[in-house]
Structures are given as C-alpha cells and as structure tokens.
Amino acid sequence: MRTLAEAGARLLGGTLHRADPLHGGDLSQVVRITLADGREAIVKNGPSPRTEAEMLRAIAASGAPAPTVLAASEEALVIELLPTQGALNHGWASLGLTLATLHAATGDRYGWAEDYAFGPLGISNGWTEDWPRFWAERRLLVHLAHLPTDLARRVEALAVALPDRLPRRPRPALLHGDLWGGNVLVADDQVSGLIDPACYHGHVEVDLAMLRLFDRPSPAFYEAYGPLDPGHEERSPIYRLWPALVHLRLFGTSYRPMVAELLSAAGH
C-alpha cells in the first residue's frame, strides 16, 4: 500500500506525508494520501488506471458527478477526494436524477473503445450495432467455458433467445457498468460522485437492473429517474445475470444459486 501511495504522490509532483488505506472492495487497493504541502487525494490501482480515468472523465462530461481525475499512469489513478458524510438510503432521489443525467449521454453503437476487466476477469467491449448480439456475445457466451455444464447449457439457450427478448436498437446510453451502492458516494442526501466505473454504451436498463442485484432502490429513485419502458421487469433478470456470472467466476460457488435463480426468472 505504501508503494501505491508513493506512486500517487509522484504523479502529483509532491512528497508523501501520510497514507491511510481505505476499503476498495476485493479487486483493487485504495489509499488516501496527504502530501507535505497539505494536498489530499485518493490513489487506487486496478486493471487499467488510464482506462478508468477516461471512464470517469466521460461520466463527468455527461454532467453526472464524478471525482476529478488528477493524474493517471499504468500503475495508479489519482482522483479528487469527495465528501462522503451521507448514506444512500437518504440519497435515492439524488441517484435517480444522477443516473438520468448519465444515461442522457448517447453514443452511436454499443460497447467501448477499450476492453476492461474486473480484476483478473476480462470485460469484452468490442463495438456492435446489434444490442442482443452484444449482450449474448460480450456478456453471456464468454462465460460458457468457465461454467458447470448444466448452467452453461442454460446460459447458451438464453443467449440464442435474446433477439426475441431484448430490443435490437435501444438508445446506446452511457452506462456506469458496475452500479451498486458501494460505487455511489453520498454527502448528506446528495450523490457526490459515481466511482469505480466499467463504462460502455448500452441499454439504460442494464444499470437499473444491476443496481437491484444487491440494493433496493426506493420509490423516490424511480420517481426521480423517470418512466421505464414496458417489459423492463422481464428484461431485468437477463441483465442481472451478467454480474451474477462475474461474481460466480470471481468469488466461487456461493453465487451459483443466484445464477440459477436468475436463469429461471429469465425463463431458462
């Protein structure tokens, strides 16, 4: 952790005075640094700090709150220290508005300019103009070789059915891509920043579905976000399946029941 802190200090052209480790989840290290001149910042590593920096800049460019990128290298990302003296259970309405702002940013096709990763697990983001194909090839079928045979067959059957289950050309909105409560910073009752993104352009319902995997947004969230398209409840388990598969591969068989339940909910 000291090495990461020192790398961040060098990127800012300063001398490290203090380093305080922060909880950064299971896939990266995060440290709060204080420089000798009094400046403070957050430093983290990850699969591709420069790519994450571009994602944070894209979120900020949409008008949604995100920490300012102060510096980035192949080893470290240095970002602004944001206020966090709040809790998401008081900030659901603010998050609804934040996501509506983020999702208003629109691309011309699905994917991202670079592939990314959750720790050791790669995320394929190659561009395509067919949304069911993107979800099948980039988010479901890539896992087949790593799944038990019974689950792999069910996932493959669902992927084949996606042209009849998902819209072919939904608006290619800018997505956070790894949206859950731990990646939302809140000050009082307002979202101060979206962090740890895995951005790409896709169907807005992906972020909304993923948020429901481990969190329970209040009615105030949906009121602030705005109306959803008919059929969104039927598509939600299809979209939640991807993060469930990621958790199964990264963290083991305790997530197998979640995958199986989502496949059943999706009709497979």
UniProtKB/TrEMBL annotation:
Q: Tell me the Gene3D superfamilies matching this sequence.
A: 3.90.1200.10, Phosphorylase Kinase, domain 1
Q: Which InterPro entries match?
A: Fructo-/Ketosamine-3-kinase, Kinase-like_dom_sf
Do you know which Pfam families this protein is assigned to?
Answer: Fructosamin_kin
Q: Does the keyword Kinase apply?
A: yes
**MF-aspect GO terms:** kinase activity
Could you tell me the keywords of this UniProt record?
Answer: Kinase, Transferase
Report if keyword Membrane is assigned. Answer: no
Superkingdom classification of source: Bacteria
The family line of this record is:
Belongs to the fructosamine kinase family.
Stated name of the protein? Aminoglycoside phosphotransferase
